[in-house]
Amino acid sequence: MVRDSCSYLNLWKKNLGKVPESVWEQPGLESLVLADNQLSEVSERIGALKKLRMLDLGHNELTRVPESLGEIEGLTDFLYLHDNRLTSLPASFGRLAKLRYLNISENDFEEFPECICRMASLMELRASDNSLTSLPDGIAGLSRLRELHLRNNKLTSLPVSIGSMLELRQVDLRGNLLTHLPEEMAALPRLEKVDLRWVTTFELPGWMEEFERRGCVVYR
Q1: Are 58 and 80 within 8 A, CB to CB?
Q2: Do β-strands 8-10 and 78-80 pair in parallel, antiparallel, or remain unpaired?
Q3: Which helix (H) or strand (E) segment is 212 a member of?
């Protein structure tokens, strides 16, 4: 058993099947890696790890994540939930207002979790390889977001509100079913890259040429 004074615990690919109860008895943990362990559930006791700054639950078999995870309001650095079987996130996740990086790629989301719109400190969001058909207008609440990765979903458009996300640098829309993009995107002053490869369902709007003149790279 690792001492309570340990701040970093790496249990990557240990074939655990279930998280040892001893993990929840280490309140000093700041970084916890539980990736690639065939986990189908995580105990609500995780909410007791109040000092966590980074949590990796990627590459497991989770169909849900505990409500209590939203109580770890000090979670600031990274939250990896990619490559699971998630279809939703608890409303409590909206309390993770200090989190800067979230990865929910390679899951089974058909609807974008509204709670993410309240994660006001997010700088990078990865939601690729899901089945998302739309994004809510509330995504504009991510006013600090710099990178938005949405590759291989089923999006046909983006909300007009994306035009107010002034910190956006990169938008990855590869492999979606887009029929148009909102002209409001043309107002994004810091956009550096828009990736539209594998999108065959629409023609580039004329204002995209202005992007390229400004130095924005448009992959198509």
Answers
A1: yes
A2: unpaired
A3: helix 208-214
Q: In degrees, to the nearest 5, what angle opens at C-alpha 56 toward C-alphas 55 and 59?
A: 160
> What pLDDT digit, counting tens, does each position of 56-78 carry?
999 999 999 999 999 998 899 99
Q: CA–CA separation, 156 vs 161, rounded Å?
A: 15
Residue 189 CB contacts under 8 Å (≥ 6 apart), including other chains: 166
In order, the DSSP letters of 2-51 are: --TT--EEE-TT---SS--GGGGG-TT-SEEE--SS--S---GGGGG-TT
86 and 61 Cβ atoms separated by less than 8 Å? no
- Give the Cα separation of 99 and 78 in Å (integer): 7
Q: What is the pLDDT of residues 99-155, one digit of tens each?
A: 999 999 999 999 999 999 999 999 999 999 999 999 999 999 999 999 999 999 999
CATH superfamily of 8-219: Ribonuclease Inhibitor (3.80.10.10)
Could you tell me if 114 and 90 are in contact, meaning their C-beta atoms sit under 8 angstroms apart? no
Per DSSP, 213 falls in state: H
What are the φ/ψ torsions at residue 14 (nearest 5 degrees)?
-105, 10
Q: What is the pLDDT of residue 204?
A: 87
